[in-house]
Amino acid sequence: MRITTLCCLTALAALALAAPAPAYVAHTVQPGETLWSIAAASNLTTRTLAAANGLSEDSQVVLGSTIKVPSVQEGAAALAAAGIASAAQQAAPVAAPAPEPEAPDPAGAYTVQPGDTLAGIAARSGIGAGQLAWMNGLDPAGVLLAGTVLKLPTTAAPAQQQEQSPPAQEPQVVPAAEPNPVPGQVNAGDIGTVASAHGVAPSLAAAVAWQESGFQNGVVSSANARGVMQILPGTWDWIQQQANQQLDPNSATDNVHAGVMYLNTLLRDFGGDEAAAVASYYQGAASVRRVGLLPETQRYVANVMALKGRFGG
User: Where are any strands of DSSP class E within 11-136?
Assistant: First the structure.
């Protein structure tokens, strides 16, 4: 009996030692996520996560796609397989990964600090106060609340925080302007119906909507864009003036109408070039014509075009 028990214990110990490391965890890419942000959230380096998925470090992840998040052991094995780490390094204790560079602030976004004024932010950004107010649906003579998120032109100089501003973190404030970020959701079929009515490919409109918000109408970006199609207040007002119908600022469907009408205008302006229209939707048509596609815009266009294929286009 003792021998049998000893044999059983020995066998169990051997099995425990031979048990494989934890399996990969599947992660579905969410709106706004990057390879860097997924790696940081998983306490991994971007290089490790990229190697585990057979990607380069500068690859762009596509919304809705699946990323494999490895354990430390699996990540080390993936690095070794890619020729980035030697087999000898795998047997050594795993050192803490070098800190990744901090992710940059979203292009064109600024959070109002205590003591800021609209005129001051505009001056530091090299734009007019009237233009800044129009883009964000603000009263040029009004008082700015600390924590308010503002959209700046993509190519504007970044508005630096004033030195006298205290470091205390203020809560994010969404300016009261249309369209209103009312909770709600649409689907690809809803978007396709609206797109077809305006002469835009349903797959393209759905791809833009998914990339922008994941079809959610309550989303407000750090640059003050709102709703399913992430419409800025200034753009909403312009679309209202062009539309033959009054759009409801609380409606998810009308947010789609506004975004699709704007996309249709861009398609006409760029001779039907979908990539240029999508780039202008993100960066602004004037900026695209003046400076070409910025690196983040190139990534945005690549993601939208990949999603377009998934939506049947």
Answer: 25-28, 66-69, 109-111
